């Protein structure tokens, strides 16, 4: 049953019609549990609250399925506004973005132009930018764009997904750039031709890439709510005398909030991924797919008040 629901929510997450429809109706149906609000001031308020609790943030202006050059330029403008707000309010926050929202499906030239505009401002304001990883179809292009931007900018990182067979090769290949990488299990529906179908293999591969990247001496963001992965990392860094300046734990806004606080209390760096904006639909469906039990949590939010 869980697998059926997972596939159902992942199918919905890729549906352009529902994405556009949902965008029109604002933060409804419980998405507010996982999304900080619709505007920059909403996001600033949430970041301030998290910073006050000792947590760092990475902010994400939600946007998927961009069809036109003007939408992509507008998305880039929103990212620049977010970077400026971070600097203006002296927030402890980075920026995360998706290349599809910068126009990846339109043209590489457009993405590069938008990314350079954002990165120029981010560099000036000292704000780090992470390129989120999307589905397998876009992985190669995303990595190639990351590499060319990394040649010119220091403040840029990206994400690798442990469910892909190719990832161990990618982490070795990227080592020449000494990159700051976020390591995750992966959130999209992929074919067994390219991704491990069994969760156990995905979990094991996440531990493997965390180990490789940390032992290479590269900054590592361990982005997982999985206690086994968190405990594995704690043990690994202890055994290998890896400094706490070289890694951080990351979790999503609204998920395992108590665990986030515990890690801060234990003295670990914790960064919360805070999405905001009115294009919340695909993000919200992927969170439901990860844990269909969240539907009860969401329904409670809608009708349980
Ligand atoms: P797993 O799914 O195995 O869950 C372990 C435990 O965590 C569960 O048993 C449950 O207790 C809890 N949990 C997990 N998900 C939950 C949820 N939605 N609600 C409540 N509890 C939940 N993916 C991607 O493809 N590209 C990307 O760029 C990113 N970026 C990213 C940033 C950050 C900061 C995080 C935390 C995650 C991502 N992801 C991502 C998503 C990632 O790939 C993955 O889908 C989720 O993190 C869920 O996997 P876990 O490692 O948490 O473990």
Automatic annotation (TrEMBL):
Pathway membership, UniProt: Amino-acid degradation; L-proline degradation into L-glutamate; L-glutamate from L-proline: step 1/2
User: Which catalysed reactions does the entry list for this protein?
Assistant: L-proline + a quinone = (S)-1-pyrroline-5-carboxylate + a quinol + H(+)
Q: Which InterPro entries match?
A: FAD-linked_oxidoreductase-like, PRODH_bac_arc, Proline_DH_dom, Proline_oxidase
Where along the chain is FAD bound? Answer: 133, 161, 185-187, 199, 224-225
What Enzyme Commission number(s) appear in the record? 1.5.5.2
One GO BP annotation is: L-proline catabolic process to L-glutamate
One Pfam family, please name it: Pro_dh
**Superkingdom of the source species:** Bacteria
Annotated positions binding substrate: 98, 286-287
Q: Which cofactors are reported in the record for this sequence?
A: FAD
Where does the Proline dehydrogenase domain start and stop, copy by copy? 43-298
User: Which GO-annotated molecular functions does the record name?
Assistant: nucleotide binding; proline dehydrogenase activity
Q: What is this protein called?
A: proline dehydrogenase
Query: What does the cofactor field's note say?
Result: Binds 1 FAD per subunit.
Q: Which UniProt keywords apply?
A: FAD, Flavoprotein, Nucleotide-binding, Oxidoreductase, Proline metabolism
């Amino acid at each position: 049953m869980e697998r059926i629901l997972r596939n159902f929510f992942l199918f919905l997450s890729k549906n352009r019609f529902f994405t556009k429809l949902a965008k029109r109706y604002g933060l409804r149906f419980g998405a507010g549990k996982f999304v900080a609000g619709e505007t920059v001031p909403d996001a600033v308020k949430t970041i301030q609250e998290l910073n006050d609790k000792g947590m760092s943030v990475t902010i994400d202006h939600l946007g998927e399925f961009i069809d036109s050059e003007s939408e992509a330029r507008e998305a880039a403008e929103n990212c620049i506004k977010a970077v400026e707000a971070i600097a203006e309010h002296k927030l402890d926050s980075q920026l995360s973005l998706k290349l599809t929202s910068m126009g990846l499906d339109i043209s590489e030239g457009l993405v590069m132009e938008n990314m350079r505009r954002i990165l120029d401002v981010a560099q000036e304001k000292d704000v780090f930018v992470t390129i989120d990883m999307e589905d397998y179809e876009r992985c190669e292009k995303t990595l190639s764009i990351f590499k060319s931007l990394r040649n010119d900018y220091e403040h840029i990182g990206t994400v690798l997904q442990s469910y892909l067979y190719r990832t161990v090769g990618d982490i070795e290949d990227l080592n020449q750039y000494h990159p700051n990488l976020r390591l995750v299990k992966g959130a999209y529906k992929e074919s067994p031709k390219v991704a491990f179908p069994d969760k156990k293999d995905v979990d094991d591969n996440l531990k493997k890439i965390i180990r490789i990247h940390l032992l290479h001496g590269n900054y590592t963001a361990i982005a997982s709510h999985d206690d086994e992965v968190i405990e594995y990392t704690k043990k690994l860094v202890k055994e290998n005398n890896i400094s706490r300046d070289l890694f951080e734990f990351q979790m999503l806004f609204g998920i395992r909030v108590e665990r986030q606080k515990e890690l801060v209390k234990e003295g670990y760096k914790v960064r919360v991924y805070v999405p905001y904006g009115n294009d919340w639909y695909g993000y919200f469906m992927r969170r439901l797919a990860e844990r269909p039990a969240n539907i009860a949590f969401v329904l409670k939010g809608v009708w349980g008040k």
